[in-house]
Design the sequence.
């Protein structure tokens, strides 16, 4: 049986204002390292989020040009690699309906192959909205404690899945608050929230990303952690791999480690693992054993 080449579904370019390289740079690198597909998934404009988030994404009027650039690369390299066009769209309860309205025209024209749903900012009653993956998060953890921060984060993720299961295709980096490695979200109370979230993801037939950017962050490991990945396997929740690259050198970073981990869990749990691809927002399940 011919094995499928791997694919990386979480890529950021210089358009997000905190990455390097353009779309074509990433596509060329993906060909060089023998990927079969690459999903370009720059942040959708963050104009509906708190103002401090706005600099971490392209402006609203730049998104059409982003699509043009992706389509240009898709056509130029179609004989060498499949290019999927996507976007990472942040969720907050107050911004969701606004984003749904802004993004819907691009869904109607079938411009996007998938949408990654992510949470980068959260709110707890005693403080203003803050970035859960920014340096300020360590200060908030010290002030309010690990349980409070992680539970607020997971409550928001739960709400995202409830509100957006027909909008988002992939749940992105689902334990992101551990980024700095000081607080890992291991308490029983936090795990109870994670189980509620996983139940809901399974019910809504959504897909979960294993995000590899933690390997090159202080935490030093992928998102989510191994315990959550094992639950994904047990529940037969489809998985996509994403490097969350902001530099081309991190494309498909440490994917071999995750594949080995998934194969071990598949053997131990005696449950076949399904990876996933998307095209025009329709998912196709790919057996783990069929990939390189």
Sequence:
């Amino acid at each position: 049986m011919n094995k499928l080449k791997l694919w990386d579904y979480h890529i950021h370019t210089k358009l997000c204002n905190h990455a390097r390289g353009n779309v074509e740079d990433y596509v060329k690198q993906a060909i060089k390292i023998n990927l079969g597909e690459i999903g370009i998934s720059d942040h959708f404009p963050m104009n509906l989020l708190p103002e401090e988030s706005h600099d971490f994404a392209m402006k609203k009027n730049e998104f059409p040009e982003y699509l043009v650039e992706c389509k240009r690369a898709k056509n130029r390299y179609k004989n060498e690699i499949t290019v999927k066009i996507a976007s990472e769209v942040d969720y907050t309860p107050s911004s969701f309906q606004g984003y749904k309205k802004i993004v819907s025209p691009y869904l109607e024209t079938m411009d996007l192959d998938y949408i990654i749903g992510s949470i980068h900012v959260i709110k707890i009653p005693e403080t203003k909205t803050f970035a859960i993956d920014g340096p300020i998060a360590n200060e908030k953890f010290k002030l309010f404690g690990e349980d409070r921060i992680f539970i607020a984060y997971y409550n928001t993720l739960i709400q995202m899945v409830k509100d957006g299961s027909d909008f988002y295709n992939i749940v992105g980096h689902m334990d992101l608050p551990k980024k700095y490695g000081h607080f890992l979200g291991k308490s029983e109370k936090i795990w109870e929230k994670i189980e509620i979230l996983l139940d809901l993801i399974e019910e809504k037939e959504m897909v979960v990303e294993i995000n590899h950017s933690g390997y090159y962050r202080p935490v030093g490991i992928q998102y989510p952690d191994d315990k959550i990945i094992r639950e994904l396997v047990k529940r037969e929740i489809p998985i996509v791999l994403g490097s969350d690259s902001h530099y081309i050198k991190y494309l498909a970073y440490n994917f071999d480690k995750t594949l080995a981990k998934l194969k071990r869990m598949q053997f131990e749990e005696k449950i076949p693992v399904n990876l996933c691809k998307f095209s025009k927002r329709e998912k196709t399940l790919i057996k783990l054993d069929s990939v390189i």
